[in-house]
Amino acid sequence: MKSDFGRAECDSDDLGRDRCSIVGIGTTDYSFNSGRSTLTLAAQAGSTAIADAGLQPADIDGIVRCEMDEVLHADLAATLGLPHVRFWAAGSWAGAAPCGMVGLAVNAICAGQARNVLVFRSLNGRSGRRFGREWAGGESVGGKGSYLEFLAPYGLQSPGMAYALFARKHMIEFGTTSEHLGHIAVACHARANQNPAAQRYGHVLTMADYLNSRMIADPLRRYDFCLETDGAAAVVVSAAEQARDCKQPSVLIRAVAQGDEAVPRQGGLWGNLLTGPLTNASSALADRLYRVAGMGPEDIDVAQFYDCFTITVMMQLEDYGFCKRGEGGPFAASGALELDGSVPINTSGGNLADGYIHGLSHIVEGVRQLRGDSTATVAGAETCLVTSGMPGPGSSALILRKGD
User: Fold this and answer.
1) Which listed residue, of 148, 210, 226, 253, carries a Cα 20 to 30 Å from 192's Cα?
2) What is the mean pLDDT, run by run of 10 residues, along the chain of 404 residues?
């Protein structure tokens, strides 16, 4: 049922299941120096997504941004000429946000607060604020309840340093090798070399290239790190019934989940580094996502994994049930991640080789896959898993399904 407000009826057990669709997508070019403001980038991606849906700016009555984004909803609404913004919200921080941001749009539509919601992320992540640099510290670190007090005093002052410990711990506990991580980097670069818009297009990466690349934070090498990127991406979310009248083929949002309950120890995700064995930090989120979707890993045809580092992909392969815990390395080496494998990943090149727009570009690519518009289309793909954020607290994820 749908009211005059475009409300999609939902219940608590399957909130949003197939009730909403992504009807429009848009991106800027991805670069190391955009030469433009983040508002300009957001406006380009947003206007492209609106036009892609076959809608007019006046049709957009909701906006969801990331709480770390410099662009405020009111500024984007004014720039795009949106006269009736009835709903706005901000998703979680950085890479954990995108799927959860889509979830906010779904919730708003289901609650009757909006009909067409623009979800965007815009950043100058290379020429401006660089998220890969060391964490800023004050004169005193302790006593603030932050996990940084367990890391910064001992020299762990950047994301790459911290994730290097995850990779080393995975190697110690499960026998994972550098070559195992290399298969993830090589697979993502292979997909980027099919995508003319990717930043690493034209840069073929072999296993030898990977192993000979510069060590940055042992055991993580240059190609284990994502690209710091300037750019923006946006999607338009609408009620499924309304989506049938839009310009593009319908891509249904089967399920969305987010949460931070997986690792309750102090230090959040980094609790994995403090005590005990390496845990499956996203498994609780994965279980809930599959339950809401009424699906399992065997039902996923293609996946867009959040890949700030190769080790996060490996841990998610285990967390989301594509292989057993500790078997992510051999699974990656088996060819399963390639286009003809059991779970092709990051088909635009991902954060590692396309561009790092904090994972919103992964949602765009998931839509392209199910429309058949990807530069590396997986034959017969009907479903796509998209994840946001590192394995653990603050993560979010969604499952997209090809429309009927």
Assistant:
1) 253
2) 39 67 97 95 98 96 93 96 95 79 95 96 81 56 58 77 91 97 98 98 97 97 96 96 84 90 52 66 88 97 97 95 96 97 98 94 98 96 93 82 89
Q: Is the pTM of this model over 0.85?
A: yes
For the record, the structure tokens of 92 come out as 């979680």
The H-or-E segment that residue 103 falls in is helix 98-110
- Please count the other Cβ atoms lying within 10 Å of the Cβ belonging to residue 372: 12
Asked about 306 being catalytic, the answer comes back as yes
Neighbours of 154 (CB within 10 A): 8
What one-letter code names the amino acid at 364? V
Residues 61, 87: contact at Cβ < 8 Å? Answer: yes
pLDDT at 155: 75
**C-alpha separations of 400 from 302, 306, 309, 325, 339 in Å:** 10, 15, 24, 25, 18
Residue 330 is encoded by which pair of tokens?
């051999």
Q: Which member of 30, 210, 306, 320 is catalytic?
A: 306
Give strand pairing partners of 182: none
44 Cβ neighbours under 8 A, 6+ residues apart: 26, 28, 232
**Known catalytic membership, residue 223:** no
**Joined tokens for residue 190:** 């292979």
Give 226's contacts (C-beta < 8 A, 6+ positions apart). Answer: 132, 307, 308, 309, 350, 351, 352, 356
* Kind and range of the H or E run holding 401: strand 395-402
